[in-house]
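>> Question from a student workshop board

For tomorrow's exercise we were told to take the sequence and the ligand below, predict the bound structure, and bring the output to class. My setup keeps failing. Could a helper post the expected result so I can at least see what it should look like? The ligand is zinc ion.
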Amino acid sequence: MPLYKSQSLKVHNTLSGEKENFNPIHEGNIGMYVCGPTVYSNVHLGNVRTFMSFDVIFRYLLHLDYKVRYVRNITDAGHLTDDGDIDNDRFVKQSRLEKLEPMEIVQKYTVDFHKVLDTFNFLPPTIEPTATGHIIEQIELTQKLIDSGFAYESKGSVYFDVFEYNKRGMKYGELSNRNIDELFANTRDLDGQNEKKNPQDFALWKSASPAHIMRWNSPWGEGFPGWHLECTAMSTKYLGEKFDIHGGGMDLKFPHHECEVAQGKACNGESPVNYWLHTNMLTMNGLRMSKSTGNYILPLELVKGDNTFFEKPFEPNIVRFCFLQAHYRSVLDISNDAMVASEKGYHRLMESYKLTSSLKASNSSSLDVAAWRQNCYDAMNDDFNTPILIAQLFEGARYINVVNDGAETLTSEDIELLSTTFSTFLFDVLGVNNKISQNTADTTEKLNGTIELLIQMRNQARADKNFALSDQIRDQLIALGIQLKDGKEGTSFSI
Ligand code: AMP
Ligand code: ZN
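>> Workshop helper replied:
Here is what the output should look like for this input. Compare the format with yours to find the bug.
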């Protein structure tokens, strides 16, 4: 029997603002779409947080034995800068800055994105489509919206008619809970050309001059697709007109996801997504992480220690562990102290895990392992509550330690259940990379052994009164950042 049949998953749906029982459209199968990165620059750690939240959601759904089609796109065209100037789209602007072709920019930062995902042990999505690979689908959708009266052409561009949409009984603003009248008051006609009937109409297709490098032929002349349309085109193509889960950072709720709802409803008459999941933001020292404010750090800078925000490097497993100690819908603030605390907690869990293979079995169990296991499931079933799951893993670590000390007893079956549940949730569901942590542990062991050997050689040199050699050993270790401390109990070291 698939595991999902014995677990009842609840997810928080932005559309209703409530936690709802999760029921996929087709039993046993899930379609999930997550807005991917705009590859005009390196992803920052904030982006990684959002993608990691969905990586864990994907992992848990797979663990529950669902067959998941997970689509995460690459935005490689159409994302305008905040000023909305079409000759200033993000790729064109960056390509001028770096003196590269726009497609070289796309390639460079797609490669960087994948490297980051590998570093942090992400599972690849099942489909990773690009906007430029789906221009035809976007043109077709635009035409469909024109034909049904939801969109109009103006000076070679095509806009979605928000008023028409509302006139036909639908409600633009339902996802982000915005009032259309307020929207009227707050939106400006960004391109200032009065191309739109109403300021809140959004572009499905933008006309582009020959100077604009990224442009394609269309029934309305040369141009490029709007950002909101690409996600509707790709999600419809791979997941159908209605699918189960759509995710992204909460900053995408409006206008991006609101426009996706409107496009889907206008095309097919019904809401395209059953469950909208939105992640909260990563802040650093209390401020939202973002490229535009300069308050950001690149993921590999944190891992290599190549930055001014953190005192030392933190390995990818520690970063993952730190991120997952906050629920995906809560703000997460990272700081040096938070990372150091996560590092300690992570090592405590790993130390306990290492003991599982040597636990001694008894004839009876004094601890209820099956109940603890269900607590782990309950945590994840409650809208993927990773901090509660981690608290349960610490409880599991306590079980391991008390059984190891002989204070409590477990049968061999319960030891097996404790060990497999612990490793399943830590490695398969939370995505901690067991291989890396094993390699790191091995390397640390070897390094410690080597330093002990050098201490012995130094002691021998001192006994032989060869002070030149003993000083050389000490000084060269200091140069490598390893301090020796001579005390009554012998020589200790710190790295
Ligand atoms: P972008 O490449 O800007 O479209 O962003 C990719 C994803 O990262 C989107 O889902 C954003 O919502 C998300 N994102 C951007 N900034 C942050 C942040 N500071 N914390 C968490 N997620 C973020
Ligand atoms: Zn999107």
